[in-house]
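queue> pop job 88
queue> type: inverse folding (structure -> sequence)
queue> payload:
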């Protein structure tokens, strides 16, 4: 099906040498002490500044003025990498429900995406910069139940699979395709029944299914980065299957909250999550659960009011999880209103990136920073209302030199 919009295609400019430069983040600040947030003016659109505490280079990349009738323009979430395969394009979401393809070099909108879906769950192809997968309606009148591939170069979409035996099929908004771009975990709804299964995109096949109550898939479902596991985060705990939907284990009660599925340096796979409801030592921590063994450990202690988000989209530079917090916490202030990396080896080692200067107290949910990393772990996008005002996105470039 051809769409009527015209796209300006950008010639890819690929930089992969930055991966080694940021592998261990040795140039970033360490430690856990609370660092105050100096007041600085809100940057104008496309204006850059150096974080006065962490000395990282940051640029404001979106503004509501870029999209008609929008009061905010920002990335989707901490678990959804907005960049395409060669980082020349990105997808942004506006307050009016529209989704926009952006030039990720100039940071200007190229076109509005017409997807016939309120919840497209966009997943960029891991190697083809022109394509992304998404869930949408088969037609304008049908309810969402199809998996499509969208080609931004030809501005067309192709139906890969019509899940016609379900009233609704979704990945629960926070899932991800594995690193190779083959598997996607889905929940299909028939009447009040839920079927959890894996869709093999490359072979157009569906795995065995598990009949699950709503509480098991209450939050999200996802395939692990290495394509070995399926994780369902539920109302009370998280559940782990292998990629063929064989049940392996339940994690302990309280193993839920903001989290992402992460890769270790050795290829091990983990769930890194906020431990507010699973207190290993009576503190609020970022916890790590080994998907193979179910073992859970503490990665780093955080404050009770930090409301952390986790991003492990750094699939080409594994071994770290990106954490971003709110605050402030009176009992244990340490990384309030901050974006930082934590190492997955249990060393309690962090690398501190930036203060995001955003607060949900004045901006609500969409003012949450929800920092997300690119695949190389060299670029980070976070949202900010700068304390008050419209929500925009900001880009941290860890390869850029600052004085």
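queue> result:
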């Amino acid at each position: 099906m051809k769409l009527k919009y015209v796209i300006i295609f950008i010639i890819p400019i690929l930089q992969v040498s930055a991966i080694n430069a940021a592998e261990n983040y040795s140039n970033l600040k360490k430690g856990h002490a609370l660092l105050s947030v100096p007041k600085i003016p809100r940057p104008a659109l496309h204006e850059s500044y150096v974080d006065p505490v962490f000395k990282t280079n940051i640029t404001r990349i979106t503004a509501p003025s870029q999209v008609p009738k929008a009061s905010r323009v920002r990335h989707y979430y901490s678990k959804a990498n907005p960049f395409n395969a060669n980082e020349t394009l990105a997808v942004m979401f506006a307050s009016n429900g529209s989704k926009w393809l952006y030039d990720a070099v100039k940071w200007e909108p190229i076109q509005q995406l017409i997807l016939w879906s309120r919840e497209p769950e966009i997943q960029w192809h891991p190697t083809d910069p022109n394509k992304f997968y998404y869930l949408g309606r088969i037609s304008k009148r049908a309810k969402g139940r199809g998996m499509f591939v969208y080609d931004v170069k030809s501005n067309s979409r192709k139906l890969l699979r019509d899940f016609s035996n379900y009233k609704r099929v979704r990945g629960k908004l926070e899932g991800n395709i594995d690193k190779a771009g083959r598997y996607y975990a889905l929940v299909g709804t028939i009447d009040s029944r839920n079927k959890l299964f894996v869709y093999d995109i490359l072979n157009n096949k569906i795995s065995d299914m598990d009949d699950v109550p709503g509480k098991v898939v209450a939050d999200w479902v996802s395939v692990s980065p290495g394509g070995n596991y399926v994780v369902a985060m539920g109302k009370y705990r998280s559940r782990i299957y292998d990629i063929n939907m064989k049940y392996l284990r339940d994690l302990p009660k309280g193993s839920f909250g903001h989290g992402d599925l992460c890769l270790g340096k050795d290829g091990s796979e983990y769930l890194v999550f906020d431990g507010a409801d699973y207190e290993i030592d009576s503190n609020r921590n970022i916890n790590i659960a080994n998907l193979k063994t179910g073992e859970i450990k503490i990665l780093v202690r955080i404050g009770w009011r930090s409301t952390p988000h986790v991003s492990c989209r750094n699939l080409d530079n594994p071994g770290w999880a990106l954490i971003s917090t709110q605050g402030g916490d009176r009992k244990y202030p340490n990384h309030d209103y901050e974006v930082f990396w934590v190492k997955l080896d249990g060393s309690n080692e962090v690398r501190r990136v930036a203060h995001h200067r955003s607060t949900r107290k004045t901006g609500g949910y969409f003012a949450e920073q929800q920092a997300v990393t690119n695949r190389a772990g060299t670029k980070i996008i976070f949202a900010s209302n700068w304390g008050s005002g419209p929500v925009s996105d900001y880009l941290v470039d860890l390869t850029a030199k600052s004085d």
